[in-house]
Write a structure and sequence with these properties.
79% of the residues lie in helices and 0% in strands. With 413 residues, it is mainly alpha-helical. Helix 3 packs antiparallel against helix 12, helix 4 crosses helix 6 and helix 10 packs antiparallel against helix 13. 56% of the residues are buried.
């Protein structure tokens, strides 16, 4: 991927620094999410109440991506990335408050800061790749760079899930949060001095009214992304971990470890996506986006039908557990390919000057989908159960496929 020899170009050094920054942030963010879900489930909070803890996390992600893309184009992606890191440190510090302070309102406020931080960091990292990728063979290299960044990030998020579950078991909630804060603080200090100041700045300063994309293909892809991620989170955020803990009797360590392994595998598939779906002389486009999401839509429907046929999911039956886990693995592979394909397409579609505007708008749709999926995950699961969450997921993926039919094809690699 990089030039031969031991000498890295300035752009390659910046790419590595951006990636390392993104990795560290993702590790702590994944660990924090698992800590909050398991800790408050341990305290007796119901599924809907746990989902509400993430309401501001997802809501402010929507706002941040919309405004953050404009901000990155004006002040530089180095600054938006470092602001995100600083806000995450502040959010972790809020959770070090005495246990009596850890009310729903306080945790929601901390999660609001974390949501802003996460999406500033992600938008900055994804946008920076367009500026740093070598111009020779740009599209092919771009696919590989984006897939590597996205895949490695999700593998680290899986490690974060494992770390969160493990730390909660070993040192408790407060000790776990303190360790994450120290780790992230060290990386932030390096990032403050290492990222160059002009990274991602637009030549012509965009006006605030330009935060909404004027590109039809960016708008179409953003709509597809909205339903794609809502379809994942409607059963993954609350329904799945709570089901594993309450219906099947898994410990915090087991839930964290399994979800960590799932996301690590998911990230590995994302990183390998260019080899899995790239055809000679052809970059992936609308045709591939539609094909892969149709396959994905079949998996939650099959899991739901299997759970209904076995009839013992509510009692934590072993057959239902095996069917659920097998279906989850298939879903993970197919979702990883869909996500990697979308991540390439948005960077490919984005305008070269002020790339963060288009990327920010797209990830605004991503965050809005996560917000809807998170709320539905708690509400649908509490009132109708895991099978209903899976059917809602399948429906949303069907809508994603319909929208993807409007995406243009890329014929030349």
């Amino acid at each position: 991927m990089f030039a031969r020899g031991n000498t890295l170009t300035p752009d390659q050094r910046q790419y590595l620094l951006v990636t390392a920054n993104y990795w560290a942030f993702t590790l702590t963010d994944g660990a924090l999410r698992m800590l909050v879900v398991l800790y408050f489930h341990q305290l007796g909070y119901g599924p809907l109440a746990i989902a509400m803890l993430f309401l501001f996390y997802e809501f402010f992600g929507v706002v941040t991506n919309l405004v953050g893309g404009w901000l990155g184009a004006r002040i530089g992606l180095n600054r938006t990335m470092n602001i995100g890191m600083g806000l995450q440190i502040l959010a972790l510090g809020m959770l070090l408050a005495p246990s009596a302070w850890l009310t729903v309102a306080w945790v929601m406020a901390a999660q609001a800061l974390s949501g802003i931080a996460k999406d500033l960091n992600k938008m900055s990292a994804k946008s920076a790749i367009k500026s740093l990728v070598p111009k020779d063979g740009a599209d092919d290299r771009l696919f590989k760079y984006v897939a590597l960044l996205t895949g490695s990030k999700n593998a680290l998020k899986g490690v974060g899930f494992f770390v969160g579950g493990a730390l909660l078991s070993l040192v408790g909630f407060t000790g776990a949060v303190a360790i994450l804060l120290i780790l992230l603080g060290l990386v932030w200090l390096d990032s403050l001095s290492g990222l160059r100041h002009e990274l991602g700045k637009a030549k012509n300063k965009p006006k605030f009214k330009e935060i909404f994309s004027k590109s039809a293909r960016v708008n179409t892809l953003s709509a597809a992304r909205f339903f794609l991620f809502a379809a994942r989170d409607v059963w993954f955020v609350v329904a799945l971990p709570v089901s594993l803990a309450s219906l099947f009797g898994w410990s915090h360590w087991q839930v964290g470890s399994f979800l960590a392994a799932w996301i690590i595998g998911y990230g590995m598939v994302q990183a390998a996506a260019p080899r899995l779906i790239r055809r000679k002389g052809r970059l992936p486009g609308g045709r591939e986006a539609t094909f892969w999401v149709v396959l994905l839509a079949l998996s939650p429907a099959a899991i739901a039908m299997g759970l209904y046929a076995m009839g013992d999911a509510g009692q934590g039956g072993s057959l239902s557990l095996y069917w659920l886990l097998a279906g989850l693995l298939i879903f993970g592979v197919l979702f990883a390919i869909n996500s990697a394909l979308h991540s390439f397409l948005i960077v490919h579609y984005a305008d070269e000057d002020g790339v963060s505007l288009d990327v920010g708008f797209y990830y605004m749709a991503n965050a809005a989908g996560r917000l809807m999926g998170t709320l539905l995950s708690g509400a649908v699961f509490q009132f109708y159960g895991l099978e209903a969450c899976l059917w809602v997921s399948a429906l949303m993926l069907g809508i994603t496929a319909f929208i993807s039919l409007r995406l243009p094809d890329n014929s030349v690699g």
